[in-house]
Amino acid sequence: MHSRSTPALPAAVLLDMDGTLVDTEHLWWRTVEETARRLGHLPTDADLPEVLGRPVAYTARHLHRVSGGTVPEARIARELDAAFTARVAEEVRPRPGALRLLARLQDAGVPAALVTASPRRVVDVVLHTLGAGWFALTVAAEDTARTKPAPDPYLRAAARLGVAPRDCIVVEDSPVGLAAALAAGCRAVAVPSTVPIPEEPGVVVLDSLEDVDLLLLSALAAARI
User: Most CB contacts within 10 A, which of 55, 150, 167, 196?
Assistant: First the structure.
């Protein structure tokens, strides 16, 4: 008699924060929209690629450029950072299925890392809501020279966990974050929050974190889906 072996779990699961674990992308967009209007720029869908999944400094540079460059980038970045942090502290909520997924990973002994383009001060506010105990480590914007869509944040998380990126699964919500995950050599689960994400090799696109379970993560780790 032959028994069917259980697929191995991934060595680690690396999770984006904004728009993936917590419902903050709309808070970030509202913050950017208000700041842009004060600068005399009316944001549209054309601005989305320069905002969603991007660090504060990147979006500040974009707003500086499209508003005519009269207000220094550093001042715009400070305003964005302060306003977004205040909003997150008041309004942040876990996305459906986020806490259940983190609990499943913890029960199965799979290390989870939070990997974000947000600054450390925002990470600390979010961890107050989510609970820092779910994560073996966190990587914030200040922790790498380059952030998403560069692979550096995911490479750093894997290195600190002592695992190979190819043995990790990333959970993301934006094309920018997904590009970083794939560039790092990870497979990924994408749960789009604002803009659509097409399926491609190494990526499974789902409607909700509630659809992410250990069987799916194991199958993706084994490159069977």
Answer: 55
The encoded tokens of residue 137 equal 């480590």
Catalytic residue from among 16, 47, 81, 143: 16
Q: Which residues sit opposite 187 in a β-bridge?
A: 169
Catalytic status, residue 211 = no
Whole-prediction pTM? 0.84
Q: Distance between CA 66 and CA 11 in Å, rounded?
A: 43
CB 155 within 8 A of CB 165: yes
Active site residue 16: yes
Q: Which SS3 state, helix, strand or coil, does residue 105 take?
A: helix
Beta-bridge partner residues of 190: 172, 205
Q: What is the mean pLDDT of each run of 10 residues along the chain (225 residues)?
A: 63 96 90 96 92 90 95 96 91 95 98 95 93 97 95 98 97 95 97 89 95 95 76
Token output for 102: 């983190």
Cβ contacts of 202 within 8 Å, gap of 6 or more:
182, 187, 188, 223
pLDDT value for 5 = 52
CA 58 to CA 73: how far, in whole Å?
A: 9
Whole-angstrom CA distances from 176 to 179, 210, 221 are 5, 22, 22
